[in-house]
Amino acid sequence: MGAAHPDAPPDLEGTIREAVDASAATVMDHHIFEANSVVAIRGDRVAELRREGDEPDFSGCDYRNAVFTNLGGWQESLDGCGIIGFDWTARYSYTWSRDTLAWNSGPSCVQGRGYSTSRSVSTPVWTNAGCGSSGSASAFIGNRATVAKIRGHVNAAGKIGYVRWR
Description:
The chain is mainly beta. The chain has one domain. The chain has one helix and 13 strands. The protein has one helix at 12-22; strands spanning 27-28, 38-42, 45-49, 64-68, 75-76, 81-85, 91-98, 108-115, 124-132, 134-140, 144-148, 150-154, 161-165. β8 and β9 form a beta hairpin. The longest helix is centred in the N-terminal third of the chain and has 11 residues, at 12-22. The protein starts with 11 loop residues before the first helix and ends with a strand.
């Protein structure tokens, strides 16, 4: 099991375990404890797990940056947001846009990480979130505690794919 992110609340792992225990048949990805924030999903409703007394945030994960330099193949984002699906209908909505202020930024193709509807399959299923300057996708999560991540590649020779995503 990975170490918790240094900025995470000290009881975050306990909070995650309680949420997973309360969710019938949740499949746990050990990488969730490496995420710097965690959100809970029921159907398509998202709420971030926070310290006791904090107001809930229903917008989901914070925006993150990713950089893709490979023209010919997919590269995964380096960080992600922990997500917990509380029932079999849970889906995570990915959105992304090209960072036009970054030096030499070019168009990208992006996919969001989800999973198969079969509970016995733990291999990620990548859902297309579009190519160009922005896009979105709704990826199936189901009863899983995992990390939301994207992968992508730059779509123009000599350019770098800088994207902001959540």
